[in-house]
Structures are given as structure tokens and as C-alpha cells.
């Protein structure tokens, strides 16, 4: 699976930015995003959460509270989206 590596990079980025910047990001985004990523090989789902409402971090699993958005996609599609090889708006309308 490619998605765990990508989420680790997102988490590393969030942990590396200064407190003022993370607070500005949280204020702008104000959301909790829950990702259900389907493993391409066995069909099982892995859940990751990006909390940009309170904490500014990646949670490996379900969020502590409610999610504002739940996104379900395959690992391959998520990797393509993260690498800029897939347009999210077009993907939503085609697969959504």
C-alpha cells in the first residue's frame, strides 16, 4: 500500500511547521477528514484521519470525534491524487 507512506509524509509536514502556521491552517481549513482507503490486493479498508479542526495531525484510524468529511477510495486512486496525477474534481464526478 502506498497510502501509509503518503499519510506519514503529511503528518511529518504538519509536525514540522511552526505553531503560528499550523494555527492559521487550522483556522482556514476547520475540518476533520476521514479517509477509508481500500487495499488493492486484499480489498480491506484502512482508515486515516487528518484533523485540521483542533490538532493539526494525522490519526491512524478513526477520529476522536465526528468527521466533517469521509472519503472512500482505493489505495491506487489515493496515491494518484496525492501525486497530482488525478484531478480530484473530475474524479469525484466520474467515480463519485
From TrEMBL:
Species whose genome carries this gene: Helicostylum pulchrum
Signal sequence, renumbered to the chain: none
SUPFAM superfamilies documented for this protein: SCP-like
Superkingdom of the source species: Eukaryota
InterPro entries found in the cross-reference section: SCP2_sterol-bd_dom (IPR003033), SCP2_sterol-bd_dom_sf (IPR036527)
Taxonomy of the source species: Eukaryota, Fungi, Fungi incertae sedis, Mucoromycota, Mucoromycotina
Sequence ranges assigned to domain SCP2 in this UniProt record: 12-93
Record's protein name: SCP2 domain-containing protein
Amino acid at each position: 500500500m502506498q497510502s501509509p507512506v503518503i499519510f506519514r509524509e503529511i503528518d511529518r509536514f504538519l509536525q514540522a511547521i511552526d505553531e503560528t502556521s499550523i494555527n492559521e491552517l487550522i483556522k482556514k481549513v476547520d475540518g476533520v477528514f476521514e479517509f477509508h482507503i481500500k487495499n488493492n490486493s486484499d480489498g480491506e479498508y484502512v482508515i486515516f484521519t487528518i484533523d485540521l479542526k483542533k490538532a493539526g495531525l494525522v490519526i491512524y484510524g478513526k477520529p476522536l470525534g465526528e468527521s466533517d468529511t469521509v472519503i472512500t477510495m482505493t489505495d491506487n486512486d489515493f496515491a494518484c491524487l496525492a501525486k497530482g496525477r488525478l484531478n480530484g474534481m473530475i474524479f469525484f464526478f466520474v467515480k463519485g
